[in-house]
Amino acid sequence: AVDRASGEGVSYAFSCTTSKPVAEFFERNGFRRVSPEEVPASKWDDYDGARRSSVICLRIDCPADGSSTSR
Length: 71
What we know:
By secondary structure, the chain is α+β, with helices and mostly antiparallel strands. 27% of the residues lie in helices and 21% in strands.
């Protein structure tokens, strides 16, 4: 998915989860934790406030040349 996003000119991708094992999966695959403020504000429109307080946000930068990021 990151390769495809990169090929379409996307500069980064993000994931948000409340599950520690899911966050660890993304980290093993090149994502890094970021604060919720680093996620586009539109993500939080109509988002449950209680859930947001426990969310883990992750981001991966997509290579500008569309090269593979697979591990």
